[in-house]
Structures are given as C-alpha cells and as structure tokens.
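User: Thanks for the earlier help. One more: SAM-dependent methyltransferase. Can you show the sequence and predicted structure together?

Assistant: Of course, both are below.
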Amino acid sequence: MTPTLVRQHPSHAGAAPHVDLRARARDWSEIQERMLVPLYEAVYERLDVGDGTRMLGLGCGSGLALLMAASRGAAVTGVDSRSPELLALARQRLLPGAPGGSGTPEGPEPPEAWSTRAGADAPRIVEGPPGSAADPTAPAFTLVTAFEPTGCLADDSDGLGELLARATPLAARGAAVVLTGWGPPERCATTSVLRVAARLADPLRGAGGWRPALRDDLEEVAQRAGLRPDGSGRVACPFGYAGPDSAVRGLLSTGLFDAAIAATDREQVDKELAESLHPHQRPDGTVWMPNVFRYLIARVP
C-alpha cells in the first residue's frame, strides 16, 4: 500500500486497460480496505470522534472509514468523484433505506438507530468534487479526513492539495484535517512488493508511477494548503491475506500497479507480483506484511 495513496483505492478514470471495475471495487472492499482499519481507529480515538462530530471524508471510496465514524455517533458525509462502483458499495453500507441500499448496515448499531437519523445528521454519499457536499442548511464540518495515504505516486500530493483547497472552506475554524501516508520504507514490508510496480512501469513513471514515501510528504501538503499542524502519529497496519491469490487481487485493487499493466501486460504483472510475495508467505499459506502508516492532524485557521 493507500500503499493507499491518492489511489489506494481504485480510480475510475485512471484504471488500467480492460479492468473489470465492479470486480476491482469488490476486491478493494472485501480484501484490501480493511488493512487500514487500525489507522482509522487510531485517528478516531485521538480526536475523540463521536456525537457532535461532523465529518467530511474525501475520497471516501466504499465507505468503511465513514461507517466506523458513524458507528461512534458522528454525522458523516463522503465525497468521491472517481469510482461510481465504489460509491455504490458505500451507499449499500451507509444508506440502507436508499435505492440500491442493502437494507442491513454493517457495524455495531442496529438498523433502527440509523433510521432515526435525519436532516443534517443523516449519512450522505456524494459523487463529485468536495464542493458538491456543501449544505447551507447544515453546520460546518468539524473534521475532514483524507484517508488515502499520500506520497506513493508521483503526482498524488498535487491532487490532494486540490481536494483540500475545495474542502477546507466547508469546515469550521479550528476543524481538524487528517492527512495520511506510508511510514518509512524500511518499516513497510510491502515496499519490496511495490518496487515491482515501479520497475515494470518505468517508461510511464512520470504519469503516475509508484515512488517511496518521503518523510515530510504530509507536512508539505498541509503547508501548501495553509493548514496549521497539530500533531501526528504512526500506526501499525499489517497487510494480511488468506493466500497469494487474495494478496494479488487486493494489491491490484489499489490501482498502484495500473501503470505497470499499461507498460507491460496483466499476465506479466500478475506473475512478478506473485513472485515478490514469496518471502512474505508463511508456512500455512497466508501472506503477512508488517507496515507502518503515518497520520498528520492539521487545523483550519
């Protein structure tokens, strides 16, 4: 991994040729997305997210981070402009009564608790840029999150800066803005796997190729956005998979290997990715890669 980056979850517009976007969205939501749960939990604990929190999730994808915040009592709005397939899954999770909803929200709250939320406190999933989430009848957001770890693609910090420029006017003065990224490469076992993406995509590295995260990536983005840093932390987020096939599907769902697929072909990427996982495969066949992620808390001036 996010990876996770400004594309730890799949981008609709940037998808590799001949990608089944629905299958990719399912792989993300069923396999890969849960790897960042410790990061979400650490941020919510530190900021005491709960009743009274009004959260705007940028690049919300299939909505797991939103669901976790809502289960703590927060009023949540998710916004994303890249993948209708992921947003459909987010709606199933967060809007059980809406068309296309599942009717059974996941998480600790019973369905009746969700049905009583209305008006400004009702969960919202918005397709479009951050400004599409503006609601003049609702209070300003007290928390803005960008949970897709930045700093792993050549241009992802620029994209995040643009999102923040559009999102922070919707937040209250002093609101927390959370940025996330990969930890030091030497503390992320997945780094060795991601180098496969960098090597295979070399001809296209200027157009979205993977690169190792840098120490001050998050601080630089916050500074350019005019935000005031207010603390940071590191969280262990191991990537664990049932087996190599699951690991390959999960990692491909991040979009980090799209440039490699475009530069070579899917068969070669699958083969070399599977080979790079061998050192991380345990005797029982599972794949385990310890990783560390960073988060930065900044404040809206």
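User: Great, one quick takeaway?

Assistant: The CA atoms of residues 133 and 177 lie 16 Å apart.
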